[in-house]
Amino acid sequence: MTPTLTDVRREFPILGRTVRNGKPLTYLDSGATSQRPQRVLDAMAEFERAHNGAVARGAHLLAEEATEAFEGARASVARLVGAREDREIVWTENATAAINLVANGIGNASAGIGGAASARYRIGPGDSIVVTQTEHHANLVPWQQLAARTGAELRWIEVDELGRMRLEQLETKVDSSTKVLAFTHASNVTGIITDVAPLVKRAQQVGAFTVLDACQSVPHIPVDLGALGVDFAAFSSHKMLGPTGIGALWGRAELLDALPPSVFGGGAVMTVALEETTWHQAPTRFEAGSQPVVQAVGMGAAAEYLMEIGMANVAAHERRLAQILREGAAALPGVRLLGPVGEPTLNDVLGLAAVVVDGVHAHDVGQVLDDHGVAVRVGHHCNQPLHRHFGVPSSTRASAHIYTTEDEAALFVEVLGTVRKFFGVSS
Length: 427
What we know:
By secondary structure, the protein is of the alpha/beta class. It has two domains: 5-30 and 311-422, Aspartate Aminotransferase, domain 1; 44-307, Aspartate Aminotransferase, domain 2 (3-Layer(aba) Sandwich). The protein is built from 15 helices and 15 strands. It has helices spanning 5-10, 38-50, 61-80, 95-110, 141-150, 170-173, 196-206, 225-228, 253-258, 293-309, 311-330, 362-371, 384-390, 406-416, 419-422, and strands at residues 26-27, 89-92, 128-132, 153-157, 178-184, 209-213, 232-236, 247-251, 269-272, 277-279, 335-337, 352-357, 374-375, 377-379, 395-399. It has a seven-stranded mixed sheet, with helices on both faces. The longest helix has 20 residues, at 61-80.
């Protein structure tokens, strides 16, 4: 039985607190970091209280229990995202680290590390890497740096006036020189959900690897990474009701096994001699050193909670919130919504709205909202190129999750409508 919104909200202790001037908290910053349900907090506390031990490094009971919890969490996350094997999930520090793992692995392969198995990843002068104009910095800067190190050309697919990818550019930007096509699954500024199929199809036509930034999609919509056809994908725990300090890289097992590691040390190795080292298969080859065991337990609990609610239910709930946030904001005089608006788009956008208020800086907009207990994100959201495309340095973003109510979304619109008058810039 699907829990009611009231039942869901009871799971999140922080939602019961008050903030500025005794106002009840209206949390609309889930796109930056989500809140955690009690069962995630309890799972982490219980592990530390009763099961803490070194993973895969002992024969005693606590070591066995810690290993079981660590790998059980991996299995839970694998189920959430449609992994065909648990070992397709690699624990990382966060999604940024996951993308860097792939980029740096390709860089190491290009330097000759990994031998014949990694030859497929080699990249250099005459090759190209393609990104899009809508990328978060985490899925842009690593590819800039890889291009600079290897001599490859960095290209990008542009977006239209609403921030939608110009997919007609695929034929010219992605060609026989392209080795990597990296793109977002859902924009953290416009909320647009990418139609993955044409990008994957074009990459496969030219033999390029695809790297998907799934940070904003995995927490909010049903995602089956295997079925999408991408080669690698990154996502983060703290955006999907889990703890900070951990994320995941998903990759096809045979591709992970051929990718050289970029962090070296104990745990990842199979044999070590003074002259050379051999590596385990994935995911172990990428998890050198002490593991983030407590964080993994929390992320696994969050995955189980989302699956219990049902990702289709999460998406349906947030579509209703998207309509309130986006259409309500777009209807306000002097307020500009970044991205599309209207009923036909609701199945293709997340429950978020990034807005620009004429004559008022985004930080000032955020302060007015905060005075009413409404927590939002302000700034460029680690996406300066897309804001530059829209001709603005920053925006104010409200973003929802499964615990957000329609009244909270409406409150955002209501307070937003007072901002220009507050600063004396209303017409």
